[in-house]
């Protein structure tokens, strides 16, 4: 890394990007910033465009409203759980996720290596999921379909994909992976996501 430059980071998503129900420092964008700093890679505070409950169309609208100018040194994108939760069609998700991915690539200055897509975790494995009145196996199958779509679109674009979904299902047997609200990941689970991203991001920035 040259003369102490500071890299910029744009994080696009929903509650999983904000770190709903945990301290900001425990969210994965902030853990990633901290871990990269430990590798002597300085990252400015993440620019986060994410709201709890957002679907793909709401994220698209949120990005438009922010009216961002310029590009970022790297971008993360994690979106879709609320499309699944609300029963929105997979075909709509495919279309809107494709649009979001193209926007993420544009924000990375057109460099596909600097975009990192993260799979949708399985909320059905959480206490909230188990008590939701929905069948956790049905939730899991639907999440897998949404992830199948986003993974296919990501691969076709030549973008890096990080699959955190299998590990998210460990929440069914490890309460330490779930935040106090019984639904969202804990700082521990976000730490696992950070570990999965860290080397990939560091390699691109060095």
UniProtKB/TrEMBL annotation:
InterPro entries: SGNH_hydro (IPR013830), SGNH_hydro_sf (IPR036514). SUPFAM superfamilies: SGNH hydrolase. Residues 11-190 form the SGNH hydrolase-type esterase domain. It comes from the Bacteria. Transmembrane segments: none annotated. One of its GO terms (molecular function) is hydrolase activity, acting on ester bonds. This is Lysophospholipase. It comes from Pedobacter kyungheensis.
């Amino acid at each position: 890394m040259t003369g102490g430059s500071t890299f910029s980071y744009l994080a696009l998503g929903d509650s999983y990007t904000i770190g709903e129900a945990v301290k900001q420092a425990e969210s994965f964008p902030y853990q990633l910033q901290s871990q990269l700093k430990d590798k002597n890679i300085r990252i400015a505070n993440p620019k986060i465009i994410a709201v709890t409950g957002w679907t793909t169309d709401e994220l698209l609208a949120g990005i438009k409203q922010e009216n961002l100018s310029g590009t970022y040194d790297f971008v993360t994108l994690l979106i879709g759980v609320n499309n699944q939760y609300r029963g929105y069609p997979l075909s709509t998700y495919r279309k809107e996720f494709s649009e979001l991915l193209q926007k993420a690539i544009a924000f990375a200055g057109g460099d596909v290596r600097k975009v990192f897509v993260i799979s949708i975790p399985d909320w059905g494995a959480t206490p909230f999921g188990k008590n939701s009145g929905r069948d956790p196996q049905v939730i899991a199958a639907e999440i897998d379909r949404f992830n199948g779509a986003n993974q296919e679109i990501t691969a076709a674009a030549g973008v890096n994909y990080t699959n955190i979904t299998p590990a998210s299902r460990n929440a069914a047997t490890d309460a330490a992976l779930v935040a106090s609200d019984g639904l969202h990941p804990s700082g521990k689970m976000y730490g696992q996501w950070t570990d999965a991203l860290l080397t990939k991001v560091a390699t691109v920035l060095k």
